[in-house]
């Protein structure tokens, strides 16, 4: 099996994006290849196509399992394990966001909450706590909004995206209306 230049370009790009998503380049490449492969792939095929060691593939599979991004598939009469993405592209995006929230946002919110429970000892800490409260509130709002988006089915979400800046215009009109009524 040989990758076409278009597939290879996509897979390499997924490797670069992997580090931004929270995992390394090799795992990004593995997931990119699995995502656009029509058929499930074995660990040996991943190793061969990506020119990486079987050990790296094994570690990558474990990491992708921990993110719940891949699933194992078995074929009758074949003892090999085949890997494919676990769900749709929308489900993949949700899982990546959820894992990043658990690994990055939740610990930050926890630290901020702990710091905000303590009374400030001086003016410097009062200022610092005010900024921490702003960060906390922003992260809480983003997390709430993201969970609302995640609960929408893909069709509703597409409709919301199509509304785009129109939502902002409606809110501007509401503000003008409320000001003129006072």
From TrEMBL:
<keyword id="KW-0805">Transcription regulation</keyword>
<dbReference type="Pfam" id="PF12802">
    <property type="entry name" value="MarR_2"/>
</dbReference>
<dbReference type="InterPro" id="IPR026282">
    <property type="entry name" value="MJ1563"/>
</dbReference>
<comment type="similarity">
    <text>Belongs to the GbsR family.</text>
</comment>
<dbReference type="InterPro" id="IPR000835">
    <property type="entry name" value="HTH_MarR-typ"/>
</dbReference>
<dbReference type="InterPro" id="IPR052362">
    <property type="entry name" value="HTH-GbsR_regulator"/>
</dbReference>
<keyword id="KW-0804">Transcription</keyword>
<dbReference type="InterPro" id="IPR036388">
    <property type="entry name" value="WH-like_DNA-bd_sf"/>
</dbReference>
<keyword id="KW-0238">DNA-binding</keyword>
<protein>
    <recommendedName>
        <fullName>HTH-type transcriptional regulator</fullName>
    </recommendedName>
</protein>
<dbReference type="InterPro" id="IPR036390">
    <property type="entry name" value="WH_DNA-bd_sf"/>
</dbReference>
<dbReference type="InterPro" id="IPR011991">
    <property type="entry name" value="ArsR-like_HTH"/>
</dbReference>
<feature type="domain" description="HTH marR-type">
    <location>
        <begin position="23"/>
        <end position="80"/>
    </location>
</feature>
